[in-house]
Fold each of these.
Amino acid sequence: MSTIAFSKDLITELPYLRRFARGLCGDASLADDLVQDCVERALMKSHLYDPARPLRAWLYAVLRNIYVSNWRRNSKFTGAKNLDDLEGFEGAVQPEQENNFSVALITDALDNLPAQQREVLILISLEEMSYQQAAEIIGVPIGTIMSRLSRARAHLQNILEERGTPVLRRVK
Amino acid sequence: MTYETVENWALHAFADGELEGDERKAMERLLAENEEARKALAAITYQKAELRKAYGNTIDEAVPLSLLASAQRRSSRGILPYAAMVASVSLVLLGGFGGWYAAHQSGSLQAADLARRALIAHEVFSVEVKHPFEVAANEQDHLQKWLSKRVGAEFKIPDLNTDGFALLGGRLLAGENSPAGQLMYEAEDKQRLTVFISANDDGKDEALRLEENGQFITCYWRDGKLAMAVTGEMAKDDMMALAKNIYDQMDKKS
C-alpha cells in the first residue's frame, strides 16, 4: 500500500480513533493528544500494516499501545478519580443538569473501573470490536477478554446501582 | 442482584453479536423463558446505550485540523523536512495538476535531491488510476524521442521484463531548470515501479546509492549525461539488482 493511499485511509479512521481514545482516557483533549501520537506512529509504521486486515483494528492496537506506555510513565493518564472527587461531583449536581447526569454518571463509573477492564469494555461495548479483534489488539487470549468483559460489566453495574439511576436520584 | 446471578459468558456473547446458529437460538429460548436473563441482557444493553450517549457523538464532530494535517504528512523517517513539505503539498495538488512537479533547488541536481524528486513523483503518480502516464507504452518510440528531447539527454527506455515489470507509459515532469521524465512500469500483481530520468547537469558521476523511505526504496545514480533513479516497493536486494539492470542497459547505449 502506498503512503498516499494509507494516509487517505487513515484520515477516514480519525473519527473512530478519537472516539476510542476518548472512551479509553475519558478526557477530550488528552484523547486528541493520544490520536496525534497514534497518527504519527501509524505513518512511521505503515509498512508493517497488512492491508488484508482491517485498518481500524490495527490503528486501535497502535493507539492502545501508546496509551498503555504513557500510563506507566505518566500518572495524569490514569484518569481514575478517588471517592472524594466523586462525592464532590454528586453534591454539585443541579436539577437543570439532569440531562447530562446519566452521561456524567457513566463516565465517572468508567473512571472507577480498573484500566484492564475499561479498555475491554470500550473496545467491545462502544467500538463494537469482535472478541477476537479485542484479543489481538490487547494481546491476550480470547478467554481473558471474555472474563475481563464480564467483570467490567458487573463492576460497572454495581457502581451504577449503588449511585442509583437518574430517576431515583431525582425522587430522593 | 439479578445481573450477577445470571452472569455468564453466553449472555455477553449474545449481547455482543458473537453467538451464531444453534448457540444463538438456545440463548433466544432462554431469554424467552427466563426473566433474570432478560434483566441481565437489559443491563448490558443499557450500559452500551449509555456509553454511546457519553462518547458516540465524537464520530460526528469535525476532526481538528491539526490531526488532519498530521495524517496527511508522510513519515519523517529518513526524509528531510523539505521533502516532507513538498510531499504534503503534492497530496493537495494531486487532483488538479497532471504534470505538476516541485523542484525548488537551483543549480545542478544533487544526488540526494534526485532521490527525493524521484520518490515524490513516484508517490504522486504511481497511485493514479486514470492517468498514470501521458504517453502509453504502445507509442514507445515516440515516448523515447519526446522525453529525450525535453529532458535534454538521449536515453533508452529500459526493458524490465526480465524483472517482471512491463512498461505502462511515461510522462514529463516540470522542473525549475530542466524537465525530467518518468517511466511507469507495472508488475502482474499491479505493483508499480517508476524510473526517473533527468539530465545530469554538471556531468559528475556518482555511484549507485539506495535510500529507504517507509515502504519505498529508491536507487539512484549519476552517470555521464543522465541522472536517474528507480523507485518502488520491494526488497532492497531486488531493487539493487533491478537498478543495476537499468544502469547496464543505459551503459550499452552510450
Amino acid sequence: MGDVFEFVMPSLGADMERGVLVEWLVTVGQHVDRGDLVAVVETDKGAIEVEIWTPGTVAELVVPEGSDVPVGTVLARLSGASATADPAPSAPPAADAPPAEPSPEPAPTPVVAVPPHSGRASPWARHLAAERGVDLTGVVGTGPGGAIVGADVPQARTKPVAAGTDADAMRRAVARAMERSKREIPHYYLGTEVDLTPTLAWLERRNAAVPPPQRVLPAVLFLAAAARAVREVPQVNGFWKDGRLEVSEAVHLGVAISLRGGGLVAPAVRDADRLDLGGLMAALDDLVRRARRGRLRGSEMTDATLTTTSMGDRGVSDIQGVIYPPQVAIVGFGRVVERPWIVDGAILPRSVVRVTLAGDHRAHDGHTGGLYLSAVANLLTNPESLA
Amino acid sequence: MTRTEMEARVRELLVDLAPEFEADAIDPDEDLRQQLDIDSMDLHQLATSLFEVYGVDIPESERADLVTLRAIVDWLDAHVSR
Amino acid sequence: MSEVTYREAVRMALREAMTNDPRVFLMGEDVGRYGGSYACSMGLLEEFGEDRIRDTPLSESGFTGAGIGAALVGMRPIVEIMTVNFSLLALDQIVNNAATLRHMSGGQVSVPVVIRMSTGAGKQLAAQHSHSWEGFYAHVPGLKVVSPATVVDARGMLLAALEDPDPVVIFEHSGLYNSKGEMPDPPPKVDLSTARIAREGTDVTLITHGGCLQRTLDAATALAERGVSAEVIDLRVLRPLDWDTVLASVARTHRAVVVDEGWKSWGFSAEVSARIAEDGFWTLDAPVRRVAGVEVPIPYPQHLEQASIPRTPQIVEAALQAVGRG
C-alpha cells in the first residue's frame, strides 16, 4: 500500500485522440473504489462518465476542469493505491476476466482500452504526434505495411471546449472507425428471414400480464438472441488482434444507437448473455437514455465484444452492418414487416424480420457465421428459451 | 389536475426523451415520431412514465392512434381520475 | 559548353595539371605507351615525355610506395592503379603509409599523393577486375575518398585532389569512361567536401554515387511517372561524407534508399544507412532501404554480372516500398 497511482485520460474508443476533462466528480482527499465514477470526459462521441479501477485516495487533481488533453495525460494522482492494478471491471469474477477482453483502464499503461491499430507508427509520425500533442490511436496509416507516417498525423486540435456533443467531431470519429473497418476488414455478409409471428404473440401475452415498466420491446428479444447465440458459436464474439482471433469469454453486446442530429454510438450491455429479458430491457432503456444525454461511461464505450444494429420500427427491412474494429462481427435486425409466408402449405400474412451478419473473414468463415445466424433465428422462434 | 397542467407534464416527459427539443416548441397536432424523431423505445419510455405519474396503462390497441401530443392529453384527460 | 566523354574529362585534368604545375607527374601500368588501360592518358607521353608519364612494372606496392615517397619530398604524383582489385596489392602503402604519416609525424609531413583507380562492374572483366572497394577505403581515417560521377567532377576532382595536402583516392567507375556530359566553358572548380543534389524531390531521397548515379536518376524519372517525387543525392565525396546534405534531405522526404554497387554486408551502404538511423531516426517515415551488390564475386557472364549489381527497376521498387506502395 502507499503506492501512487496515476489516473490518465483513457482512450474511450479506437478513434479517440484527445478528450476534454469537463468535470471532476471527486475531490482531493476523497476515497475511491473500483468502478467509481471520477470524471466526466468530453469526447467526439459526447460526454462520457469515466470510472476508475484502482482504489485509493485522491491526492491531487492534476488537470483542471475544461482542459483539452491527449489520451494518456495524467489527470489525477491517487495515494494508497493498491500495488497491483486491477485489470478490469467484472461482475462475476472468474469468468469475466478473460485475456481476450480489452480492459477499459488497467493502470499504469495509458492507452490500453482498445487494441492498438494493426499498423505501426514511423519515428517521424511519433515525433510529429509528440510535437502536436495528438494521439495516434485509430489513425489510419498509409506508409509501408500500413504504418502511420508523418503525413497521416492529424493536426493538433485547437478547438475550444465545446459543450455537449460536437456533431462534426462525432462524424469524424465515426468516419475514422468505419474507414479503418472497410480498409482492414474483409467483410462477408449473410442473411436469413425469421417468421416472428408466434414470438410476437408470445411477447404480447407476456407484456399484457405485467405493468408498463416491466414490458419488453421486440428489440430486446433481438439482443437476447444475439447474445445467447454466442454460447453456441463463440467465434463471432471477440477481437481480431495481432493477426489472430481472440474469442471473448464474456459477451458484452454493443448496441448501435443513432443520436438525433446525426451521431452514432455503440455502447455495450455488459454480460448481455447473463441477463433475462427484463434485465436486458432495463439495460437498454438506461443506455438509450444516457446515450441521448451524452452520459455514457468509459467502460461501456470500449467493452463491446460484438455489436448489434437494429432498424427499429421505423426503418427499412434489411441492414448490412459495418464491423466496428477490432470486433469481428456485427448482427443486423431489419424492421419487422408483414409478408406473405408459406406456413404448412398455405400462404399466410406473417411478421417477418430479416437478420443479417457481417463477419470478419480473417477471423471466421461463412459457415461459422451461418451457424451463428441459425442459432439466432432458432432462439428468436423459441422466446421461452430467452425468458 | 387541470388539462393545462397535464399537457405541461407530458411536454416535460417528451423533452426528457428528446432533450434536443424545447417543451414549448412541440406542436400538439404533429406526429411525435416525425416531430421529435422518437422510436419505439422512446414511446415505451413515455408509456412507462405515464404509468408511473398517472397510474394509467394505455392499451396496446389504442397506442397506434396516440401519436400526437393532443391525442395523448385527450386520452389522459378521459382516463386519469382526478 | 561542349560535350565531352568522362575519359576526355580525366585527360583534360591531367593535361591541365601537368601544364600548370611542374611537380605533377603520372605513373602506373600502361599509362605511357599504351595510353592507359582506359585510354585516359592517351597522347600524354608524346606531349609531356617519359619523365612525367611513367610506365611502371606490374608492382602496385612498389610504384604506389614510390608515389608516396615522391609526395613526401614535395612532388605532386598521380598514381594510376588499373583496377580497384589490384589496389589491394598496394593496400599496405596506402593504409599504413599514405594515410598515417601526417598523424604519426605530428603534422610535420604531409602526403599529397593522388591515387586514381577504376572501379566497378559492367564491362565483363570478371571477379578480379570488377569489384567496388570504395567502402573499404572510405573506412580509413587519413584518406580522402572521392567518386566522381560526372564529367565536371571527373576533371574538377582530380585537380582539387592535387591541391589537397593529404592523400586522395579517386574512384573512376569503368562504366563511365565512355559516358558523355556537358563541360561548361570555362570548366568550373569543384570542392572535395560537399554532396550534390542531382535531382530535387519531395517523397524519397535516393542516395548514391559514381557508377550508380545514372541508374538512380533513371529510377527517379520512372518514379515520377508513377507519381513519386524522388530526390537524388550524388554523394561525390565518400570520405569525409557530407552528412548535413544527406540528413537535411531525408528530413524533408522522410524516406531514404541507399544505392551502392558494393556488397551490402558490412559495406558502404551499411554505413550510410546506419548514420541516417543514428542521426535522422526521428525524421524517418519508413525503414531505410538499400539497393546494393549481391553477395557474390562479380560474375563474368553478362546477364549474371548485371544481376549482381543495382539496376534501375530494383531502385524503383525499393523507393516504392519506402513510400508504402511497394
